[in-house]
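Q: what sequence does this backbone want?
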């Protein structure tokens, strides 16, 4: 197991997250992260983290309504 895999596993355990998750990680420089930030979010600036869901977005028909009890 690599150092990075070990760190990721420890973080998942510390956060009580099932370790059978899939985690993708890409480490890039400032210019590349700026390009990705612009491509995906329309922001022409570097950022610390870009995170994306691996699950398909639910259709409007399958959304559960948000209800706040009185």
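A:
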């Amino acid at each position: 197991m690599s150092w990075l895999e070990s760190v990721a596993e420890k973080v998942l355990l510390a956060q009580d997250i099932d370790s059978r998750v899939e985690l993708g990680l890409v480490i890039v420089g400032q210019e590349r992260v700026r390009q990705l930030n612009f491509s995906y979010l329309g922001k022409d600036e570097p950022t610390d983290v870009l995170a994306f869901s691996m699950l398909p977005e639910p259709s409007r028909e399958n959304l559960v309504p948000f209800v706040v009890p009185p």
